[in-house]
Each structure stands twice: as structure tokens, then as C-alpha cells.
Amino acid sequence: MNTYCYVLKLIERLYDVTAWTQVDEEAVNNHFLRIKKDYETGKIIHVGRTINDNFKGFGLVVFTSEDILDATNYMNQDPAIKGGQMSGSVFEYKHIF
Asked: 71, exposed or middle or buried, with CB in 10 Å at 0-12, 13-18, 19+?
């Protein structure tokens, strides 16, 4: 297994808290539940986000995967990416300690 990370960015429309729909809230909740489950099972090594609540902010998911194609597929299955609430980019990641 190799280590990868994906960087998540909230779409600009959702910077306005009044713009959130029920669909947005459900997708982001499902995103959280998926990450929590995969962390508990050991697929995810680390999850975090910046404190910024503006366009400079981002989330980070560090996880294991077979290869870059599998890692990209894993990222693309994130409910918030599938639902369009967040965008993501996947990278190979060197876990130091």
C-alpha cells in the first residue's frame, strides 16, 4: 500500500452560510461519516482542516491506497465531491512519522 492525500476545498457558493441547502448539509454530513468510518478502520491515517473560513481554507485527508488510480477513485467517491459541495485534488504523499 502507498500513501496519498487529497485536498478538499469548499465551493465558493457555500462560503455564505445562508446558501446551504438540505442537500448540501446531507452530502457534507455523509462526507464526515465516511471519513470517520474509514479512519476507524485504518484506511485513513490523518484528517484535518485549516482554520480559515474563506477561500484560502482547505481540508486534508491522508490515506492508503494501491495506486494513484485507486486513490483518485477513492477521492472521487467522497460524498461532498460527488455532490459538488467540495472540489478535490489527489497527490502522492510521503508520510514521515
From this structure: buried
State pTM to two decimals: 0.92
Distance CA 18, CA 21 (A): 8
Q: How far apart are CA 47 and CA 12, in angstroms?
A: 22
- Quote the cell numbers at residue 31: 462526507
* Residue 87 phi, psi (nearest 5): -110, 160
Helix (H) or strand (E) holding 38: helix 22-41
* The three grid cell numbers given for residue 21, joined into one nine-digit string: 441547502
Chain segment 41-90, per-residue pLDDT in tens: 999 999 999 997 678 899 999 999 999 999 999 999 999 999 999 999 99
